[in-house]
Write a structure and sequence with these properties.
single chain; alpha/beta; Udp-n-acetylmuramoylalanyl-d-glutamate--2,6- Diaminopimelate Ligase, Chain: A, domain 1; UDP-N-acetylmuramoyl-L-alanine:D-glutamate ligase; Protein-Tyrosine Phosphatase, Chain A; six-stranded parallel β-sheet; six-stranded mixed β-sheet; 21 strands; 33% helix; globular
């Protein structure tokens, strides 16, 4: 946005310009280089947006941001008008808005229109982050792209990612998360996507939505938001999405029996060769992962890429991020599957399948599963954990459960099992249970904090005990 003046930005945000920015002396343009809601990042070139928070209002840091040399600030009337009185330090622009979050979202929508880029929205109960990252990897050799980071997938994170896309971007890939009904629709209004991808429908956020049907309807808000003639990418034979499909869209299905399917794949952990059939066109890819759920996500990404006019070929530069199934080789030939970022019944089953398959490929000594509570599952939470126990019994040789809900996973487990109350106790226990040649999976909902277990396993040797 560095070519936009303060007046243009205020108008796009629906705010009032109380003080203009000083004239720029460089060829960068009159506008800001970036937008931030973190006052610690509000230095030169930044537009700082002061938002209300749980404990403190970001508008209280307006003076600090201006003193640090911020290009300008955008906040509500109560915090901005004192700034307009001349009591604030610095010389940056000051923009006041009744609702600064809504103004941030309006500004992001305006920038999306200015970019003229194609926009892809990616949502799903599981797999949306890896599908987003896979799609970005497929597109990068062919288009100038921008993709949302990590979990910047909310009503705050998504507009920030749109605003971070530089001029000249041709495709923006945005992850869309939700906790309840109406939230995907809100994100779609901001992003105005040309392609919508729904990766999966499963029992996530049942605490808020109650039923799988309601979850599907919430995810399908992305389908409803697409303009006529756009492309919707959905799982093949997903009955819960059937009522939400539209005849005026190009609907592409992926997975067994769909338009985009996996034909063949080698069965090694590295240099994986994958053959995909995309509506009769054969696509050959080389990837560095063998997990079945990642291959499925790859199919969704291929379908979305083709909707943008890109047919990917060759090597795919993708590695799962920390906490999302990343492989970490530990001393004594122990392999850690770091999948601790989040968990639900679907992703737990997929992770246990991956543990069993990986151990078989590597001829591992033991399959070790460290499983914590799955949160936000509503009244049926206990039943989901009990059901998971049956899969754990066939996929693991040693089981460690963490948290009150996860305790039931171990009921009837035939092998060695341990239960601890929390992540701290698990981090103390697990390193001492492992032996040479083990494969260990660590997975739970983010709130359980099993990152502590992965950190304990990957800590330098002097800090760890070994078997």
């Amino acid at each position: 946005m560095n070519r936009w003046s303060a007046e243009t930005i205020a108008a796009a945000a629906g705010g009032e310009l109380l003080r203009d920015a000083p004239e720029q002396r460089t060829d960068a343009g009159p506008g800001p280089e970036r937008v931030t809601v973190d006052s610690r990042d509000a230095g030169p070139g930044a537009l700082f947006v002061g938002l209300p928070g749980e404990r403190v209002h970001g508008g209280e840091f307006v003076a600090q941001a201006l003193a640090a040399g911020a290009w300008g600030v955008l906040t509500d009337l109560d915090h901005a008008y004192p700034a307009g009185s001349g009591t604030q330090a610095g010389t940056g622009a000051i923009i006041a808005a009744a609702d600064p979050l809504a103004s941030l979202q309006r500004l992001a929508s305006a920038w999306r229109r200015q970019l003229g880029a194609r926009v892809v929205g990616v949502t799903g109960s599981t797999g949306k982050t890896t599908t987003k990252d896979l799609l970005a990897a497929l597109l990068a050799p062919h288009r100038r792209i921008a993709a949302s980071r990590a979990n910047f997938n909310t009503e705050l994170g998504l507009p920030l990612e749109l605003l971070a896309a530089p001029a000249g971007t041709e495709v923006v890939v945005l992850e869309m998360g939700m906790r309840g009904a109406g939230q995907i629709a809100e994100l779609a209004r901001i992003a105005d996507p040309d392609v919508g991808v729904i990766v999966s429908i499963g029992p996530v956020h049942l605490e808020m939505l109650g039923t799988l049907r309601a979850i599907a309807a919430a995810k399908a808000e992305l389908i409803a938001a697409l303009p006529a003639g756009a492309t919707a990418v959905v799982p093949a034979h997903e009955p819960l999405l059937g009522p939400h499909l539209r005849s005026d869209l190009n609907t592409v299905t992926f997975g067994p029996g769909g338009d985009v399917t996996l034909v063949t794949a080698s069965d090694t952990e590295t240099d994986e060769h994958v053959e995909i059939d995309a509506a009769g066109e054969r696509i050959s890819l080389e990837v560095s992962f063998a997990q079945a759920h990642l291959r499925r996500n790859l199919l969704a990404a291929v379908a979305a890429a083709r909707a943008l006019g890109v047919t990917p070929r060759g090597a795919v530069d993708f590695t799962p991020g920390a906490g999302r199934g990343r492989r970490v080789q530990l001393p004594q030939d122990v392999l850690l599957i770091d999948d601790c970022y989040n968990a639900n019944p679907m992703s737990m089953r997929a992770a246990l399948d991956d543990l069993a398959a990986t151990a078989a490929r590597l001829q591992a000594r033991r399959r070790v599963a460290v499983l914590g509570d799955m949160l936000e599952l509503g009244p049926g939470a206990a039943a989901f954990h009990v059901q998971l126990g049956a899969r754990a019994a066939t996929a693991a040789d040693l089981l460690v459960t963490v948290g009150p809900l996860a305790a039931t996973i171990g009921a009837g487990f035939p092998g060695e099992r341990h239960h601890v109350a929390d992540a701290r106790a698990a981090a103390e226990l697990v390193p001492n249970l492992l032996a040479a040649g083990d494969v260990v999976l660590v997975k739970a909902s983010l709130g359980v904090g099993l990152r502590a277990v992965c950190d304990a396993l990957t800590a330098p040797l002097p800090r760890r005990q070994s078997v």
